[in-house]
């Protein structure tokens, strides 16, 4: 028999991106210091740590893509790049004293709810622990999705995903195949085009692309925002307000997006003179159905003589030959997949076993659903940051994260008020009613009616990703926990109600 120590904490936070660090800051502000942040990598940053491909940057203005409680007057550009965003998250970890709570290389391998002890048993790569509450902040853009392309294993060259960029692979002089035309691809293509011998873009669906109003933020602006915080707040408020006014077109009146389509077509015409290429790059669905992309360099790069467009997906690989769904064949030395992430089939869901002995993935087999985007029925004291139906199509996810942090804060307050060793489990009826209202509203949104197949939709064609309203509305509905929507769980009769005071020793075979 061998002994091992299983530490107990009040809260375990999974992930150290915006959601995880934000949750940690909010816990400290609540006076809760008995928590850990479990991170599978060796540094903070989440998707902004993992995505280091050439040209990687945010498509939301920097002053809106940052925490309201941690403003940064030193953003270098309107749309800052990956290194600056990652550096910002490192500063957040330092400024708010989160380093002592971080546990690196501690990937969560499995979690199981103990119905008698009313806590979570968590197995990590760094050892086991138990927690009263678990906050999952793994995010939907954390696990890359590579399609199962027949023959891919026969390809003799390098194969990578945009979120796992191989910096040791020098692309200069190579024949590169870029698979996909999403937000990552439109940044990678212009970044590598001048250096490669030949670049072939496999486009299954053409994206809508608008100009990117990017520029350097002047020293005078930085001084003004640092010296007079009200100007920084006003800038953020203006950016937020403009996007709030756009929401109704996406969620209620998609036909009003015609003007935006005109602007996008005009943007393309300025760079793409070849009518055949222009026709291949013109989407056949309503703008906004897929995420609208921003770039001033994507179309000019596609017009260069060393770039080819295959207006079809990748069908199969035969050695170094790539075959498109249209039958075209292309030789390549390197393949880069920009094919997105596991968004509607979150890998973490396979590792979480709830009160009924089923995993979250099993409960979500017909589609994700969670009360107010946070609580799944049958998974007590388990909250998700950026959960089902919290995604946005035109604004900053940081706004949604902060709204969910408000919900987390009130969830912890309710537990303290109710007494020691209490758990809250979302009632199935409450989750079903919440989801019914969401899907009812979703039916008329551009994401459901725009005529495209996007990553917002799950395998059943249901939109379990996007939020069909404004960020202000989401903030309102997550301001506090409604106890009527939860079952209050108490220790079984005869069990002590006090929480473990610290580490305990457990005997394992």
TrEMBL record:
Residue ranges crossing the lipid bilayer per the database entry: none
The domain of life is Bacteria
Per its UniProt record, what SUPFAM superfamilies does this chain match? FAD/NAD(P)-binding domain
Keywords of the record: FAD, Flavoprotein, Oxidoreductase
Q: Which Pfam families match?
A: FMO-like
Disordered: where is this region?
Answer: 490-509
What the record says about family reads: Belongs to the FAD-binding monooxygenase family.
Name assigned to this protein? NAD(P)/FAD-dependent oxidoreductase
Please report the organism this UniProt entry assigns to the protein.
Answer: Streptomyces caniferus
